[in-house]
Specification:
The complex is a heterodimer of chains A (about 425) and B (about 300). Chain A has about 425 residues and is α+β, with helices and mostly antiparallel strands. Helix content of chain A is about 50%, strand content about 10%. In chain A, strand 6 and strand 7 form a beta hairpin. With about 300 residues, chain B is mainly α. The chains are: A alpha+beta (about 425), B mainly alpha (about 300). The interface between A and B is large, with 130 and 140 residues.
Chain lengths: ~425, ~300
Amino acid sequence: MRLRTNVDAAPGRSPRQAIPFLLPALVVLAALVLYPLVYSLIRSFFDARGDEFVGLSNYVDTFTDPRTLTAFRNNVIWVVVAPAAVTGLGLIFAVLTERIRWATAFRLVLFMPMAISLFASGIIFRLVYEEDPNQGIVNAAAVGVHDVFSPASQYPGARPREGYAATEAGFTAARPSRAGEVITLPLIGFSPQDVPAQALPASVPSAGDGELRGVVWLDVSVGGKAGSVDPTERGLPGVAVEAVREGKVVARTTTGDDGRFTFPDLARGEVVVRLPSSNFTLPFRGLTWLGPSLITPVIISSWIWIMTGFAITFIAAGLSAIPRDALEAARVDGATEWQVFRRVTIPLLSPVLLVVFVTLVINVLKIFELVFVIAPGSVQEEANVLALQMWQVSFGTGGDQGAGSALAVILFLLVAPAMLFNIRRFRRERS
Amino acid sequence: MTLVAEEVRIDVPVSGAPRRGVVSRAVGRLGNGFVQVLLAVVAVFWLVPVFGLLIASLRDEAANTSSGWWTVFTKPAELTLDNYAELVANQAVWQSFLNTFYIAVPATALVVVMASLASYALSWIDFPGRETLTVVVVGLLVMPIQVALIPVAKLFGAFGLFGTITGVVLFHVAFGLPFAIFLLRNFFTGIPRDLIEAARMDGATEWVIFKRVVLPVAKPAIASLTIFQFLWVWNDLLVALVFADQDSAPITVALRAQLRQFGTNIDMLSTGAFLSMIVPLAVFLLFQKYFVQGVLAGSTK
């Protein structure tokens, strides 16, 4: 603070008068923070029930348990990726917002996630990444983009009733055909409700000279005869049909509204009729964001959403505290703006960047709620982090408070360097 | 951290007017228009997830399971407040909403009172070990709460506090104190010594100096602390997950049970999440400046 004076030079009159002021806070801190720290340390050397001294075996178990190792691995990923990403984004946006008039509004928007609970943020991102493209917007966007480049098929999952072999290219007829024949091609495995509205009742075409004709229709077995065109059954419009000779497509056509198709000019000889797989491919449903392989990146992205506003605001405060003279001096000496930024701004800002980074690392080590909420129960093992594992082992399914205490102590040791960092900074500032 | 608290006090960028700084010219070549568009896109990216949750909370179960919230742009008639009515009518959920207040209000008040008192002693009363005590408090700033979960659960069990609102409050007070003392001590030591000395000359007791001189000056710091602590407790899940039982659970814990079938519970979860967000968002928008100061200073927790 600007007004800070030397505190030690202004002592109160009697040490005893400090007691009533300090007592309430000290009692609470001693009973609920310091005593538990010591207790956890001792407890970590005892077994699950706390009866038997087991030495270091809880720690050995911890470092050999695959679940905990996964948690360790994920914590490492978090620490390596997330704080650096947020510090970088914070620096970029803090510099860029100096150029716009609505900087205040921008920072307000990005800071807003800090106000709401990690639990609520978790639900927000669970919804964002929900796998069903009718619920999660990321997959909806992915499907939208995908379908622009490869349009969705019209009859996903449908297949011929019999006599066709499923191959990579599509359903290929087991027997060859030739001009003058009529092919009936009943399809099944598709809901009548999904048949396009323009579909007309199916009818078998008459044989035509020099032409190969046929009909593709939805063969509803209920109330009709399997494999034959019943009066109520409709043709399937828009189905691509290919004629293949010696492995090469020699003709291609599409069924009409009544399901009929015709190959008009087939040269003499036999062809094999094939329904290309593009008719039937199941629609692209997006990625399994909340599955085992993508879950940690997904949760990290939600954390970036939460913390970037903090980094921007913090770094912007540091930027505005940089003395203008230093920058002007560099400019007078002929430095380009980029050089000023690299050689003057960044070095002057580095203490602030370090504080932001350390703060974010501490935050990342304690990450719990986001993993707990965003990872569905079935993939929580893959998304596991130490703080969550500690809760699960001690209070969740585990119920082993010896191992839980060991994890708590490990967590404490991981945070301890930050503790020393804070104390050293504090001491330095006082002297 | 000290530096943090101080820097924040010097400059509050969120509420200040944008400054055409010299650094900004470093990226001048990018072109202002491009920057404007880029930042606008980023801002939209930040808003869309929350907006989606809000819309989802205003659509019924059938709508939420069959189509995405963005279809609301073509079918705005689907919007309804039924989810909120249903949730508020649900006795357990409403009770958990109230519990969140019953936990957050005392946990905030106690921290503010205890930390003010302790910070005064650490700033203006000379006693042996003052330096050590201050360093211990700074060290405790980053203490992970996991360290205390098991021992305090045992302790509360012995005193009949496990599963009670009192227990949850006490735990929050304990882990709120280090930062609170740190923040207030920084502010208190910045009060001009003359003010304190003059009061002492007049024969004022420590209690009177604390009440009449220090507290009135420290209002901004206390406001930041109050808002930060209140939201910290309001937003908690882990502490309540361990120490609260069904009757004392806050809204985060109450909603947690719904998480198992996320896809079919979007209506209730989004509504519950939004209900729990209303208070923090209101506090954020109303007390922006104090909140930002508090969060920046308390980010190490």
